[in-house]
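Q: May I have one protein plus its fold?
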Amino acid sequence: MAVEINIEVDAEEVLQALQQLDEAVLRHVRQQLERWAMEVREYAKTLAPTRTGYLRSTIYAKVQEWTAEIGAEASYAIFVEFGTRYMQARPYLYPAVQEFLPTLEQIILEALERAKAEACLP
């Protein structure tokens, strides 16, 4: 005795659903990553030492695709963050990232769930 199961799949429909999922994932993850990066930037600004306020004003957050970049454009920013042999380090970027790092995985997982739900809806 044999049982035969025949399954027909509309490849175009599957490809369309996968494309929708891909776009939704990228959009949702990027939105969450942007929000996360802005929170890190704002916290780094509160941690940055201030004499004139220039260093604080140059702290930025950029998100491109799956990458978040948080930094400072002041020419001396690296010396403040890591110190020199003449000056003790006064980190502000690294502690800010470390503070918000535990939440990063959770917000990405939430974004993936939203994207999955959006792609599966008709």
Observations:
- Strands lie at 59-64, 67-72.
- The chain has a mean pLDDT of 84.
- The longest strand covers residues 59-64.
- Residues 23-120 form one domain.
